[in-house]
Protein backbone atom coordinates (compact mmCIF):
# COMPACT_ATOMS: atom_id res chain seq x y z
CA UNK A 1 0.00 0.00 0.00
CA UNK A 2 1.22 3.51 -0.74
CA UNK A 3 0.24 6.86 0.72
CA UNK A 4 0.21 10.09 -1.31
CA UNK A 5 2.36 13.02 -0.22
CA UNK A 6 1.81 16.60 -1.31
CA UNK A 7 3.08 20.08 -0.61
CA UNK A 8 1.48 23.41 -1.43
CA UNK A 9 5.02 24.82 -1.46
CA UNK A 10 5.86 22.83 -4.61
CA UNK A 11 4.38 23.08 -8.08
CA UNK A 12 0.95 21.50 -8.37
CA UNK A 13 0.67 18.40 -10.56
CA UNK A 14 -0.08 19.19 -14.20
CA UNK A 15 -1.75 15.81 -14.87
CA UNK A 16 -3.14 12.76 -13.06
CA UNK A 17 -0.38 11.90 -10.57
CA UNK A 18 0.61 12.43 -6.94
CA UNK A 19 3.53 14.71 -6.15
CA UNK A 20 4.98 11.76 -4.26
CA UNK A 21 3.99 8.47 -2.70
CA UNK A 22 5.27 6.78 0.42
CA UNK A 23 5.84 3.03 0.10
CA UNK A 24 7.39 1.57 3.24
CA UNK A 25 10.82 3.11 3.76
CA UNK A 26 10.85 4.62 0.26
CA UNK A 27 9.38 7.87 -1.03
CA UNK A 28 8.98 8.23 -4.78
CA UNK A 29 8.83 11.86 -5.89
CA UNK A 30 7.24 12.39 -9.30
CA UNK A 31 9.13 14.34 -11.93
CA UNK A 32 9.26 18.02 -11.06
CA UNK A 33 9.44 20.60 -13.79
CA UNK A 34 10.72 24.11 -13.00
CA UNK A 35 7.32 25.59 -12.24
CA UNK A 36 7.19 28.33 -9.63
CA UNK A 37 4.44 27.25 -7.19
CA UNK A 38 3.63 30.86 -6.25
CA UNK A 39 2.94 32.02 -9.79
CA UNK A 40 2.35 28.83 -11.76
CA UNK A 41 4.85 30.02 -14.37
CA UNK A 42 7.73 28.05 -15.78
CA UNK A 43 11.24 29.13 -14.77
CA UNK A 44 13.23 28.81 -17.97
CA UNK A 45 15.58 31.79 -18.25
CA UNK A 46 18.60 29.47 -18.04
CA UNK A 47 19.07 25.75 -17.50
CA UNK A 48 20.72 26.60 -14.19
CA UNK A 49 17.64 28.51 -12.97
CA UNK A 50 15.33 25.80 -14.28
CA UNK A 51 17.31 23.05 -12.55
CA UNK A 52 17.37 24.99 -9.28
CA UNK A 53 13.57 25.44 -9.38
CA UNK A 54 12.98 21.76 -10.15
CA UNK A 55 15.18 20.83 -7.19
CA UNK A 56 13.36 23.36 -4.94
CA UNK A 57 10.10 21.63 -5.83
CA UNK A 58 11.65 18.23 -5.04
CA UNK A 59 12.97 19.59 -1.73
CA UNK A 60 9.56 20.97 -0.66
CA UNK A 61 7.87 17.65 -1.41
CA UNK A 62 10.53 15.75 0.54
CA UNK A 63 10.03 18.15 3.45
CA UNK A 64 6.29 17.33 3.39
CA UNK A 65 7.37 13.71 3.88
CA UNK A 66 9.74 14.78 6.69
CA UNK A 67 12.75 13.99 4.51
CA UNK A 68 15.55 15.95 2.85
CA UNK A 69 17.86 15.77 -0.14
CA UNK A 70 20.34 13.89 2.08
CA UNK A 71 18.03 10.90 1.94
CA UNK A 72 17.78 10.74 -1.85
CA UNK A 73 19.23 7.47 -3.16
CA UNK A 74 18.25 7.80 -6.84
CA UNK A 75 17.60 10.70 -9.18
CA UNK A 76 16.47 10.81 -12.78
CA UNK A 77 16.96 13.94 -14.86
CA UNK A 78 15.13 14.48 -18.14
CA UNK A 79 16.49 17.11 -20.54
CA UNK A 80 15.28 18.22 -23.96
CA UNK A 81 18.67 19.54 -25.09
CA UNK A 82 21.97 17.71 -24.62
CA UNK A 83 23.65 21.12 -24.66
CA UNK A 84 21.99 21.82 -21.27
CA UNK A 85 23.72 18.90 -19.55
CA UNK A 86 26.75 20.80 -18.21
CA UNK A 87 24.66 23.66 -16.80
CA UNK A 88 22.19 21.24 -15.21
CA UNK A 89 25.03 19.22 -13.70
CA UNK A 90 26.75 22.32 -12.28
CA UNK A 91 23.57 23.41 -10.47
CA UNK A 92 22.78 19.84 -9.39
CA UNK A 93 26.26 19.60 -7.82
CA UNK A 94 25.68 22.85 -5.91
CA UNK A 95 22.29 21.77 -4.54
CA UNK A 96 22.51 18.00 -4.07
CA UNK A 97 24.55 16.97 -1.02
CA UNK A 98 27.37 14.45 -1.22
CA UNK A 99 27.61 11.57 -1.41
CA UNK A 100 25.62 12.04 -4.59
CA UNK A 101 22.80 9.59 -5.22
CA UNK A 102 22.74 7.27 -8.19
CA UNK A 103 21.54 9.22 -11.23
CA UNK A 104 20.84 9.04 -14.92
CA UNK A 105 20.17 11.80 -17.39
CA UNK A 106 17.82 11.03 -20.25
CA UNK A 107 17.38 13.19 -23.32
CA UNK A 108 13.79 13.40 -24.52
CA UNK A 109 11.91 15.11 -27.30
CA UNK A 110 9.66 17.14 -25.00
CA UNK A 111 8.52 17.69 -21.42
CA UNK A 112 5.26 18.92 -19.86
CA UNK A 113 4.47 22.61 -20.35
CA UNK A 114 7.53 23.01 -22.59
CA UNK A 115 9.96 22.61 -19.66
CA UNK A 116 13.68 22.22 -20.33
CA UNK A 117 14.29 19.88 -17.39
CA UNK A 118 12.36 17.50 -15.16
CA UNK A 119 13.77 15.76 -12.08
CA UNK A 120 12.35 12.81 -10.14
CA UNK A 121 13.89 11.17 -7.07
CA UNK A 122 13.60 8.20 -4.76
CA UNK A 123 14.40 8.80 -1.09
CA UNK A 124 15.01 6.24 1.66
CA UNK A 125 13.85 7.01 5.18
CA UNK A 126 16.75 5.15 6.80
CA UNK A 127 19.59 6.73 4.82
Q: Which helices and strands appear, and what pairs or packs with what?
A:
Layout: E1 3-5, E2 20-23, E3 26-32, H1 47-64, E4 72-79, H2 85-95, E5 102-107, E6 117-124
Parallel strand pairs: 4-5
Antiparallel strand pairs: 1-2, 2-3, 3-6, 4-6
Helix pairs in contact: 1-2
Account of the 3D structure:
This protein is α+β, with helices and mostly antiparallel strands and 127 residues long. It has helices at residues 47-64, 85-95, and strands at 3-5, 20-23, 26-32, 72-79, 102-107, 117-124. It has one domain (3-124): 60s Ribosomal Protein L30, Chain: A, CATH 3.30.1330.40. Helix 1 (47-64) runs parallel beside helix 2. It starts with a strand and ends with a strand. The model has no long low-confidence stretch (mean pLDDT 96).
Jot down its keywords.
six-stranded mixed β-sheet; globular; 2 helices; 6 strands; 60s Ribosomal Protein L30, Chain: A; 23% helix; 127 residues; alpha+beta
Strand residues, percent = 25-35%
Oligomer, anyone? single chain
The number of domains: 1
Poorly predicted regions are: none
Q: Given the structure, what is the number of helices?
A: 2
Described by strand count, sense and barrel closure, the largest sheet is: 6 strands, mixed
Whole-number mean pLDDT:
96
Name the helicity range: 10-25%
Name the helix and strand elements from N-terminus to C-terminus, one letter apiece: EEEHEHEE
CATH architecture: 2-Layer Sandwich
Principal-axes geometry comes out as: globular
Span between N and C termini? 21 Å
CATH topology: 60s Ribosomal Protein L30, Chain: A
What is the structural class? alpha+beta
Strand order of the largest sheet: 1-2-3-6-4-5
The value of Rg in angstroms is 13 Å
Would you count the extended β strands for me? 6
CATH homologous superfamily grouping: RutC-like
Q: Which CATH class applies here?
A: Alpha Beta
Amino acid sequence: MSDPISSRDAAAPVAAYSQAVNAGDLVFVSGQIPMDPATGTLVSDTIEAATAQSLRNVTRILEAAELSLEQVVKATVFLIDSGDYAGMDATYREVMPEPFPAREAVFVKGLPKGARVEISVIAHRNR
